[in-house]
Specification:
By secondary structure, the protein is of the alpha/beta class. The chain has 2 domains: 235 residues, Aspartate Aminotransferase, domain 2, CATH 3.40.640; 102 residues, Aspartate Aminotransferase, domain 1, CATH 3.90.1150.10. It is 37% helix and 16% strand. The protein has a 7-stranded mixed beta sheet with strand order 2-10-9-8-5-3-4. It has a 3-stranded antiparallel beta sheet with strand order 11-12-14. The protein binds pyridoxal-5'-phosphate. The site of pyridoxal-5'-phosphate has 12 residues, from helix 3.
Length: 362
């Protein structure tokens, strides 16, 4: 096998090597059945067990605060949730209110607006999305169905540290890029969704955690495929789920648990991020694009003194085995995405490369 590069891709992103190796074995003969999970019926007891295990492992990771939430694995990634949330939770005259802290929040709001059910509550675009509002600033308007925020802004490199509490409306969060990267108190949220391909597993899947009381109040007049109630009622088997993706995500959940769970994930993510921010903070050569108090532990965004140097950085780092460091085109510069599966050694290697690059070109 070729040497694995240091994979800093923003998503789809790095997965634990142990998980990939286990899946490699399973792809021809899963659990000694003589068949691949790719060939199993989704109605078979074998798949039922795989699905159930993914759900219970996720519950174990989340702990008791998730007891009141239904867990759904849905297709369509996070972008389908941009539409599914307002369809299920909002109504004409009762819109969702959106805290717009980056591109993904803008897209979520745009979908709600397309349905006539979205309103902006806060917008950080004037400041280049480098900051977040203080939690006390977030107040729901009386007629709103929910407040929606994005816990980690994958493109702009900002991340909420704590969340609004005691809102008069349900809090909904897109956690696509930091789900399960730290302990999570579900009691603050009525609904959480996350596309899997950043921190949880393969692309095409979204994890949805929806409080059972909210589920009972969801719209009843939707096509089944868009209805949380239909999916929950069929225990995740309303239609054929992406069986292999669920299997792989279940392995990732198991891996996280074996590594020490969310407390350990949080500790590692803090260590990884500080290794890079230390280099950025100690230097006049690198500059972080996010306000320090809200900068992300998942996506470290930074710039160099010129675009010429940024191109050179990408070129030289690629030659040393680093991939995925190009910033999103809207922000420019560089971005190191350091999700759960990222080994500390790769981050140390990047920090060393950054110091050496500065010494050569600074
Ligand atoms: C990547 C991302 C999305 C989009 O996910 P898809 O699965 O491609 O729809 C949405 N929100 C956030 C915060 C993301 O990082």
């Amino acid at each position: 096998m070729a040497q694995r590069p240091h994979n800093f891709n923003a998503g789809p992103a790095i997965l634990p090597l142990e998980v990939l190796e286990e899946a490699r074995e399973a792809i021809v003969d899963t659990h000694g059945t003589g068949l691949s999970i790719l060939e199993w019926s989704h109605r078979s007891p074998e798949y039922g067990q795989v699905h159930e295990e993914a759900v219970t492992t996720l519950r174990e990771l989340l702990g008791p605060s998730a007891e009141g939430h239904e867990i759904l694995f849905l297709q369509g990634g996070a972008s389908l949730q941009f539409a599914q949330v307002p369809l299920n939770l909002a109504a004409a005259g009762r819109p969702g209110e959106y805290v717009v802290t980056g591109v993904w929040a803008e897209k979520a709001l745009a979908e709600a607006r397309r349905l006539g059910r979205g309103r902006e509550l806060w917008n950080g675009g004037g400041g280049g999305f480098s900051t977040l509002p203080a939690v006390e600033e977030i107040r729901a308007t009386e007629d709103c169905a929910y407040v929606h925020l994005t816990s980690n802004n994958t493109i702009f490199g900002t991340q909420w540290r704590d969340f609004p509490r005691n809102l008069s409306a349900p809090l909904v969060a897109d956690m696509s890029s930091d789900m399960l990267s730290r302990p999570l108190d579900l009691s603050a949220f009525r609904l959480i969704y996350a596309g899997a391909q950043k921190n949880l597993g393969p692309a095409g899947l979204a994890v949805v955690l929806i409080e059972k009381e909210v589920l009972d109040r969801c719209a009843t007049d939707l096509p089944n495929i868009l209805s949380y109630r239909a999916h929950a009622g069929a225990r995740g088997l309303y239609h054929t789920p992406p069986t292999f993706a669920v299997y792989l995500m279940g392995l990732v959940f198991r891996w996280m648990l074996d590594q020490g769970g969310l407390v350990e994930m949080g500790r590692r993510s803090e260590t990884r991020a500080s290794l890079l921010y230390e280099v950025i903070d100690a230097s006049d050569f690198y500059s972080g694009t996010a306000a320090p108090s809200v900068r992300s532990r998942m996506n470290v965004t930074f710039r160099l003194p010129s675009e010429e140097l940024e191109r050179l950085f990408l070129e030289e780092s690629a030659a040393e085995g680093f991939v995925g460091l190009k910033g999103h085109r809207l922000v420019g510069g560089l971005r190191a995405s350091i999700y759960n599966a990222m080994p500390e050694a790769s981050v140390r290697a990047l920090a060393d490369f950054m110091r050496a690059f500065e010494a050569r070109h600074g």
